[in-house]
Amino acid sequence: MKIPFLDSYRERQAEPTARYTLFQNTDQIFTEQYKNYCARFEYIVDVRGCKVVAISSAIAGEGKTVSTVNLASNLASTGRKKVLLIDLDMRKSDLAKGLRFPSTPGLAELLGGTANLSEVLRYVIAQGLHVIPSGRRVDNPWGLLTGEKFRILLMELRDLYDVILLDTAPMAPVSDALALRDLVDGVILVHRLGYTPHTLFRQAMEDIGEKKLLGVLLNGVEPHSERYYQRYYGKYYVKQAGK
Ligand SMILES: Nc1ncnc2c1ncn2[C@@H]1O[C@H](COP(=O)(O)OP(=O)(O)OP(=O)(O)O)[C@@H](O)[C@H]1O
Ligand SMILES: [Mg+2]
Question: What are 150-167's pLDDT values in tens digits?
Fold first, then answer.
């Protein structure tokens, strides 16, 4: 299985209280890393013709939400793409909390038929980003995410946006991400080095499969330490075009 390396960003030391450092980010290196990540992502979606992309990870806390928010915001602010971000982690509503939006009404209400699209959409005006929060807490989102209504919603949204990013629950404890695999055009796997057991990371890669895995985003490493990736990935490592 050949896996493209997408990008990496380092462990951030500053502002431990700032959970989502989207708009008040003063750390220049961190900001630059996100710009690079965004540029590579845009290249991949253009080349592969992807529109709906899930961001996943093997276990909780690897940096999915923080990297998805920053990716979506960077991509939207280029003005080249109309970007929608949806919070599919329906047990936690992290995205709404981080962006300081009300979490309801959101996706749960939209799929439940108690709210329409215009009622659930939120806007990050400065970046031109559209967001659908997860809505009320759903203990077993599997039913909603595998249902016909969600499939139809994604089909409709495809006509309205250039890129739709899905912030998901981690793969190991819950199975939402696997349910999504067939609905999306591609998956980005976030992997936090020194945090996630390697076996779980490999299992997550195998579960997503070569066809859908767009790339791995390494969190918690110094940028450009290419030799480290090669050693770490071994036979999985593939150098990306433009890297
Ligand atoms: N590179 C980094 N440096 C410092 N802190 C980070 C980094 N990446 C993520 N974090 C922090 O780690 C925590 C977990 O990140 P985040 O919520 O994005 O992970 P997640 O994969 O979405 O977690 P979950 O699976 O629970 O939804 C957050 O407090 C976030 O700010
Ligand atoms: Mg999250």
Answer: 999 999 999 999 999 999
| H-assigned helices in the chain | 28-48, 64-77, 94-99, 107-112, 117-120, 142-146, 148-160, 176-181, 198-208, 226-233
Number of domains into which the chain is organized: 1
Is 228 part of any domain?
A: yes
CB count within 10 Å of CB 102 equals: 12
CA of 20 to the centre of ligand 1 (A): 8
Q: What is the pLDDT of residues 37-76, one digit of tens each?
A: 889 899 999 999 999 999 999 999 898 998 898 899 889 9
Ligand 2 geometric centre to CA of 72 (Å): 14
- CA–CA dist 142, 139 (Å, integer): 9
Name the residue range of residue 68's domain: 3-12+24-238
Sign of CA dihedral 167, 170, 176, 179: positive
Give the DSSP per-residue string, 175-232: -HHHHHHTTSSEEEEEEETTTS-HHHHHHHHHHH-TTTEEEEEEESS-TT-HHHHHHH
42 lines ligand 1 (CB under 6 A): no
Q: How many Å is the Cα radius of gyration of the chain?
A: 17
CATH of the domain at 136: 3.40.50.300
pTM: 0.88
Residue 52 domain-assigned (yes or no): yes
The minimum-distance atom of ligand 1 relative to the CA of 21 is 31
**Structural domain contains residue 18:** no
Please list, in sequence order, all residues whose beta carbon lies within 8 angstroms of the beta carbon of residue 238, skipping any fewer than 6 positions away: 2, 3, 4, 5
| Sole residue written with tokens 């976030």 | 190
